[in-house]
Amino acid sequence: MLGFRMARALAVALLAPLLAALAPAAEAVVKRKPPSIFDSPLLWATVNVCDTKNSPDTIGIRGSMPGSAVRGERMYMRFQVQYLSKSEQRWHNITQGADSGWVSVGSARYKARQAGWSFRFAAPTDGSTELLRGAVTFEWRNGPVVVRHVRKRTTGGHASAAGADPAGYSAAVCEIR
């Protein structure tokens, strides 16, 4: 019969290579961060309407936000329009008539939700143009408490579920003529 020391030495000899083989995999699991809701491809903002025949002098902004899958959380979006100052070459918020206020988009248990808002502006009368973009603020709330908050500027290349004019339109900016 094997003595205690001999049995322990045999167990260590047999388990050591197995533990050494598993160590890199265990380390990778520990180092890997869970996917962040803020990095989700389902989180975006886009211009989906820009001064069209059906919507003259109008910018439409659409946003998509991923659900958190947390029971009791609700999702909200706020749509705002910004203009590019030609003299400063900087973006500024339009202070009147360009803010939707908070829009409830539903339960955070959904995989993702989309919503949009359109704003109509007077076209420049001197033949110039105004370059506009959208900024969407996203909030996940549990009751009155904001548990996540992020703001995105509009970018192109997104698939709107509804409201694009023309169908499929997605851009970063809009030029009102």
Provide structural commentary.
This protein has one helix spanning 4-31, and strands at residues 44-50, 58-66, 73-85, 90-93, 99-107, 112-120, 130-142, 145-153, 173-176. It is of the alpha+beta class and 177 residues long. The protein folds into 2 domains: 1-32, no CATH class; 37-176, Immunoglobulin-like (Sandwich). Strands 3, 4, 5, 7, 8 and 9 form a 6-stranded antiparallel sheet that branches. A 3-stranded antiparallel sheet has the order 1-2-6, with no helix packed on it. A hairpin with a 7-residue loop joins β1 (44-50) and β2 (58-66). The longest helix is centred in the first third of the chain and has 28 residues, at 4-31. The mean pLDDT is 88.
How large is the share of residues in beta strands?
A: 35-45%
Helix and strand composition category? alpha+beta
Number of domains: 2
Largest sheet: 6 strands, antiparallel
The residue fraction in helices comes out at 10-25%
Residue runs with pLDDT of under 50 for 5 or more positions: none
Would you tell me the overall average pLDDT?
Answer: 88
